[in-house]
Amino acid sequence: MRSKKDFIRVREASQNNLKGFDLDLPIGKLTVVTGLSGSGKSSLVFETLHAEGQRRYVETFSPYTRQFMELLDRPKVGSVENIRPSIAIHQSNTVKTSRSTVGTITELADYFKVWFANTAELHDPTTNDIIKDDNPQSVWQKILRQYPEKSVLITFPITRPKKLEWGQLIQSLSAQGYTRIILKNEILRIPEQANRIPKQANRIHVVQDRITCLNEKVRSRGIEALKIAFHFGQGHIEVYDKQIKQLSRFTHGLSSPKDGHTFRPATPALFSFNSPIGACPECRGFGRIIEIDKNLVIPDQSLSINDGAIRSFQGEVYSESLNDLKRAAKKYKIRTSIPWSDLNNRELKFVMEGESDYTGESGQWYGVNRFFDWLNKKLYRMHVRVFLSKFRSYTTCPQCRGARLQPESLNWKWKNLTLPELYQKSVNDLLLLFDKSKPISPTTKHHPETDFSFIGILNRLRFLRDVGLGYLTLDRSSRTLSGGETMRVNLTSCIGSSLVDTLFVLDEPSVGLHPRDMDRLTGILRRLTSLGNTVVVVEHDEAVMRTADHLIEIGPQPGVRGGHMTFSGSYNKILQSATVTGRYLSGRETIPIPKKRRPKSSILDSSLSKVGTPFLSICKATKHNLKDLSIDIPQRRFVCLSGVSGSGKSTLLNNVIYQNLLAKKGLAVEEPASIKDIESTLPLSDVVLIDQSPVSKTPRSNPASYGKAWDVIRNLFAQLEASKSAGMGPGHFSFNSGEGRCPTCSGLGFERIEMQFVSDVFVPCESCGGQRFKDDVLKIEFNGKSISQILELDLDDALIIFGDHPKITRCLQPMIDVGLGYLKLGQPLNTLSGGESQRLKLVRYLGRVQSRSEKKTNPLEIKQSTASTSDHSIILIDEPTTGLHRADVKRLIGVLQGLVDAGNSLIVIEHNLDILKVSDWIIELGPEAGDAGGQIIAEGTPEQITKIVCETAPYLREVLDEDCYKKRKGAENKSEITTTKTEQLIPNKGSSSTEESNFCSTQSPLVLSSSAYPATLNIQGARENNLKNISTKIPHNKTTVITGVSGSGKSTLAFDIIFAEGQRRFMESMSAYARQFVEQMPRADVDELIGIAPTVAIEQRVTKGTRKSTVATITEVAQYLRLLYARIGIQHSPNTGEAVVKQSFAELIKRLKNFLKEHRTIDGKFEVRSKSFDVLHLCAPLIRGRKGHHEPLANWARDRGYEALRINGRIIPIEQFKKLDRYKEHDIDLIITELKADRSQSSKQLNTSLETALKFGKGSAFIMDEQGKRVTWFSTERTDFTTGEAFPELDPKHFSWNSPRGWCPTCRGFGQVFDWMTTEDEKMVDHLDECADGEICPDCHGSRLNLVSRSVKLPLKEQSASKKRKVQSNSASNLPIPAFEVPDSASLPELLALTPSGLINTLSLIKTTPRTQSILQELLPEIEERMHFMNRVGLGYLSLDRATATLSGGEAQRIRLAAQLGSNLSGVLYVLDEPSIGLHARDNAKLLDSMDKLRTRGNTLVIVEHNEATMRRANKIIDLGPGAGIHGGEIVASGTISQIKKSKKSLTGKYLREKMLHPLRGQYRALPEPWSSRRRKAKDQWIALEGAALRNLKGFDIQIPKQRLSVVCGVSGAGKSTLIRDLLKPLVEAAVYHKDPKLSSKSKNSPFFLDHSPFRSLSNAEDIRKVIEFDQSPIGKTPRSTPATYIGAFDIIRNIFSLLPEAKVRGYTAGSFSFNTKGGRCETCKGAGRVKLEMSFMPDTYLTCDDCNGRRYGTELEDVRWNGKSIADVLNMSFEVAAEFFSFHTQLSGLMQLMVETGLGYIKLGQYSPTLSGGEAQRLKLVSELAKGMPSYKERQYNKGRGNLYILEEPTIGLHTSDVERLIELLHRLVDKGHTVIVIEHHLEVIADADYIIEIGPNGGNDGGQILYQGDLAGLKNCKESSTAPFLGPSFTKCN
Description:
By secondary structure, this protein is of the alpha+beta class. It is built from 64 helices and 71 strands. The strands form 20 sheets. Strands 5-19-20-3-21-22 form a 6-stranded mixed β-sheet. Strands 10-9-11-8-12-13 form a 6-stranded antiparallel β-sheet. A 6-stranded mixed β-sheet has the order 27-32-33-25-34-35, with helices on both faces. Strand 66 and strand 67 (1738-1744) form a beta hairpin.
């Protein structure tokens, strides 16, 4: 019996027409959902299951990212449990970019790039010889082979630096022992002949060695000489003979022996056209460029210049250019009256290029080409861009010739084939090529990544072949694929991604697939499930249903009569059911074979073929894979084109027949096939191609209007007496125009509300209630139904109601005949599927059929007479059975036969055997796909086809043999057939099916056994960063901890590989547009990841946000509340408190006139705000807070005659407009008109101007003064009735205190006023978030928002007096908000002052309307989920406006977990980075319980962690090491915790076995004499704080001993950080600054405000030298900051190098050795070592600088060396190596050794600071402080305190236990130097080694803030109130 966890449990599914049934969907199985078209299959599969799975996963992204994603609506469903992240594979191609190819979307291109980079060989572009990388050994072999026994000189070149003279260089060379140089083929001796070197000479060659006789005897000498020459020649060597003739040149790297040209080494990026490294610079990797097309400029070469041959010179705008040409032609004797094709070359060149000596003078002919060049300079004008678009087209890139890659990439070849040439081969050809040759060269046998990439290539190629796509080429553009091809390509991509535990939903994958390939398809589907995924397929194909584990049928009828689950079970059981599908599958109901086909004798009689039977004759058609195809297709017959996928059917139907027939009629066509002739025996009245493209893209078109019934219905309503008496005509009953439609929604019936990061909401129009029409129109009824109710009828019901009106029924009947009777008359056509759209298109021709049928009694007997040929049409249909159940196919067949019976020719592409068996004639194309297809294999009647050898024959033979067919059906249905009526099969609401179905015995070879279910995530060959090609396995549905020493590679494995790949593979299912906004990491360097689930990362963030960050913002609740207020909040007047009201246009124009009158002065000016203006401006707001350059908007305004825009508050004339910063948000307003005080504007002009402003501003407008400042608003929606003030349309930014639109202008959204606010720009203030607290803002009272935003309120339900509640002030933040009653409304600040429970309760009281209810349904569940999780993790006491800067580390970490873990997903791989940080051991235990529940819900947890309690809960531990950096990256141990303990290699195991003994120093420092305010000596040894009462602190007293290591501990949120960081730190700083021995709360020296002083006194802190706090913030944000510069070591190193003799000779100073200043640095990269490569359409890429090779310095500094090392070499050293290298220098060696002792010895001196982790940065700061801060001699002599006070908060974050031990020793070293160290810490090892401990508790929030203990460790262990003591067990043994 399977448990509930084995099913996705759907309860009360009510989406669209679903009737609220329950469903248990088996997990890990293949489920097929079937049923009649329109019954509700897609509503269940896509709009319920997929929508919920996708929504929950996407919620793990930020709100910013989510707003760009194509989000589905939240489904109407009671609940969904155990849902997996969902990927939908649709029958549609949404790819728009031409960058996407079959190779990229299948990831084959990624595998090919890796494989090709390792197997291809470089060919010299000049000689085509293979180029190898030169090295001393290979060069020796070459010269020995080429010049045996010869005398040679081995030389290296030296280029003179600009700042040096040759004399200086020669002196340096001589000092190193060199005696000869070569200059201009002459040997010079140095230094004797150095004066012969010309000053202007740039290069010389230094002779490294002269070998008199090349042979093996001098091999060692030669290789050594070559090695040194390569080194000093910067990788370049030249070999001369004794006559000083150059023999060869070599480059250490890849270079041409012919011309010395160097090449980049092969890397995957070099072969990517989506990378700026590999993309062709001309076309940027597109393979095509857009330019002026001569064929479009001169489209008809038979015309003369006079007759208009040059199309661009026709028309009024540029006709003057034609006159210029004629004048010049007359002068230069150019013939303008003859056809263009007859002009000679001289004349053509003159016309196109202009006069040869053209200088731009007036009268000269500039030429057609210069004409277009001139226009290209005016692209800012809209009409110019439109004009040029008529003459532009895409042409193959001339540089790469369509290969997309840059020329250097094309020099690399495998078997003489470039990578683009491989891409041009079909999948089948590639497989054949790879089978014949082993594409792994001998040079790559030691490259495992090559093996894995090649295996990945083969697997994906085979997947494509197995789904019938072997004919595709990898360079085929994705957007040219059909819907079916796209689905199958995506299907193979899903398998190739190796995702597991994912829900895949597919929409009819069998579409477009030949029956031959069906087994392969089902094998692919089975493989997806065998990987551990759940696959749900909407399908009607019997082969797919047979292989399914579970079948669900939705029915029993389409539309409103459907939506029930009529069956749920196995395939065998549906055979017994009485459902529609069951009857067809069991053979009880079939589609009959025609008893008589249309006469075939005349067709087969060759003598009559051209007389008796009409044909469509095609002669020698060529296109794609069709080559000279000729065929006669019988007309007035039902003809089917069959054949395997890719055989050429669509090319024949579309490019050959349709396009050429249109061209023959003189119509424009796109891509017609090349053809000799196409001829129809019968005249053609029409040629129609009915495809599956949308019928309409707007919601205004519906079945009634499309079928021409709506006009008749409107006329019918207009003829009613009630209509006539009301004066209503047909126009009143139109929802698209006229006076009857609702003016608010313009007849749509709904309003679209943009919801940004959640899916948009469509709500009924408030005015008409969704009924589209005005009330008086709705009163008119026909048969008891209003016009709106008529639109809600489905076609079947409408046919009954209008049964007495034949005009209407004639319009409706064809739609019912094609199986669309379930559609509503008013259903928007843009909601139809492709199949529904295709069938609807048939309707227009069925109407003609009916009219003809009335005149013809027996169409089959009609002779081919001239009288009957006038109505002949050719109807072409591509797979009309798409989306149809067999019952619908049966009905469709009748319709298609009717089309032929009416005298039309019907040609259909189809694989469906039911269609093929009823056709008159079949044409089979093949024999295979692609180049192996394109031939006519067979043609004839269905019976004749079965006798011919072709792919369709065996399948057609089976369905035509009815006896055999029924016998097989009977065998399948061994049980007695159930005769229960279909209606009885409909389960009651709430019932569900949990029965298991059996696997079908027929399985494809691709199907894996159930044992193949991947129980683990397999990682092979991980080499990212410092990982050493490791392989490991992560068990699914278990907890795995990755541990190891700091810097060993844990985060690389967990985040850079596991998380990045899991998210990337899932994101491939999203649109390319959405993916660009997701911060995806680059593809990791790993061979393979198999069995990865979609991933969610919960990363460690040691920062708590800025001063503007609150609990609401980091839980994302603020974003949802802002959106809620913007969409349903009601604006109230800040002055009166009353709700604002709507105003009509008449009221607004009156208000405008009154405003102008009131502000007009007697001297003809306006006076506003005490300032005088000549004019005011009426403006319309166009854009608010939208990113982009907005040039099209400026062009739009310019084209409409407007002169200026107001952009970000500044008035900009449109002619001066320049593109805006596309990455910044902008506000843009259109200046409609000037308002003058001289009354020159008429009332009519004012009316027109205001109407225009309101139109463009969507109901809003405003008046602006000449300085660009707004004066007043006008709004149709938001106007204060009493004052007339109008308010802008609400936007979420109006409720953001991070936006100028929402923040309080006084405090700028901080809620407090600071001293720095007197400056103009807060950016000018350094360390803004480190400022002391300011005063509460007097205007917003700490609520952060401006007055208008605070005046927007949510309406709440009325409550009785006894139930009225009060919202208390936010005591937690010390920002009091007055208590307020919320009986009727609440502002955003009032809601944010609540706790999570209070917020949930208040939101439940919101008054709702039909409109607001839809919005609340989207947003409330998101808010509630997060608030409930906060309660579950013990944070229910926090108010939502609490600043995160005031939170403890544990509170901040739990809040982040609440935001991420609240999505309620299953089947996800969560990657967590030290979730225990900031958590007390007690809180960590609770967190581990929560994570256990998360795992039991079907998720996998990978945790980077050092915490022992977490490791003990883990199912598996992976220990990385053995050291850090280059010494790490290996798996030293793997297994359970007991196995780790036994591992001798594991440092983690050692610490788990052998506990750290405390104290590490051997004994604790003795505490000073107990503090006493009366004894001075006792007082001096302590810092005493009395009355600590900040936030939740309860007014206690503490004493902290000086020159001791003190630890403050306690549960998370108890008040530790508040006590030390927010209270003690500023108090000590104030005491030190003012030298105040006793700082009191009433003292003017206090840093706190007297009214809210959180302490009584602080004593004895004045002798502290300085207060220093260590945090984990980065030490630098640019590559120019390095560890060596930060700790001051690099200054010493530069001084050492500047004192070297070589440096002194050249005049180098210490500054010359800086990479941050000019002098010695490489100027190409400005000392960064890398350059930024930018390219349009592609992400920026950083490349190693070619000039300095990443070494940061110029070549001139390479010769300055100390102990053989240059300054660049030193920067590349690790601190470990540098400590030994600089052992001679005491200070420098000491600094290096400190780095080693802190566990940072693996870090390089020149490593970019931004790449350091938070823990590494914090320890680096410790080193910096240890290197300074030594007490002075006087302080040491007199034993004065005068040490620093160091404060550290959780310095153990990210540290392994071994690193914690080092950290403790470091802290003790600080104390030993006379400093006082206070550590806020939960780590038990640190607590156990402290001299003094303070514990705060007992709980978090208001339940904490009490002193539980202060004293030594022994006393803490005996403290019963302590929450820490129970965890300090006997393992923490004291060692004396």
